[in-house]
């Protein structure tokens, strides 16, 4: 945490620093004020860390961060700003009270001060301070609000979020005398340290959650969906097919002779390249891959099979010694649910007699083409 457990040590360090900077020792009254501020920050930050560890939405985090700033530095106005990694999409996240600075109804900041852009684009420094804002033309869209509330100074913190964008905390304050500014700058420096740690903790927590969720639904070797994740997504695809009278094809690809993880990964990449963005593919077991896709008409299933076999042949995988690739296909609505589709496709692949080939399950028969099915 940014506030040390040994507060007396931190106060003594601060006192020594102030003495060097000003040429005189800090007063006992100021030391007491700093101690009170550190205690207040510690308590508020502890509550924030507890909430972060428990998990919260982005909106809740923003609201609590603004409330935290109001607790530790009630004399400032806090503005939370985000932008993407290209510095093109700027938004004010706590919109209430900032409508007059050029924010549309969805929070987009239409006129961004150049100072913010320059600061966000300079990740080598994570804090900065701008004084006498009314004398800087790049803040012109903010003049009305700043003048009405007597805000003359802006202290900013920039932290990169887990998505690669930038998160800025801007603390606006009134004009201060030289003596007042010395005390204020100490307080704002401590507050920004705490805000940096809190935001980094929140973004790290989000990234850890994302990695954990991905690890629970993706195969570590291939990056493809795991069995349960595929089943969940296919259930949605099947529900849509029933509602909109769509055709589906399920494809079981069973491979033997690939022992190395690199070979299995290459094989999975070849399979994935044959699919469209809205198709599904999973490593269903060690040696079986399952695919699901929407098709326009019955004949398309043969197009799918031939395209798949051609892609595997071009990659040279079937020519490897000991490698066998057997493909089975099943159709919806001929098979009406997930289980029957899977078993039909799985057994169709098992019915392939040659080392490399495919079979189509059609009303209980395993055939190499629809023409063969029609002739039965």
From TrEMBL:
Domain named GGDEF: which ranges? 246-365
Signal sequence interval, chain numbering? none
- Top-level taxonomic group: Bacteria
Gene3D superfamilies attached to this UniProt entry: 3.30.70.270
Return the PROSITE patterns for the record.
Answer: GGDEF
Name of the protein this chain belongs to: Diguanylate cyclase
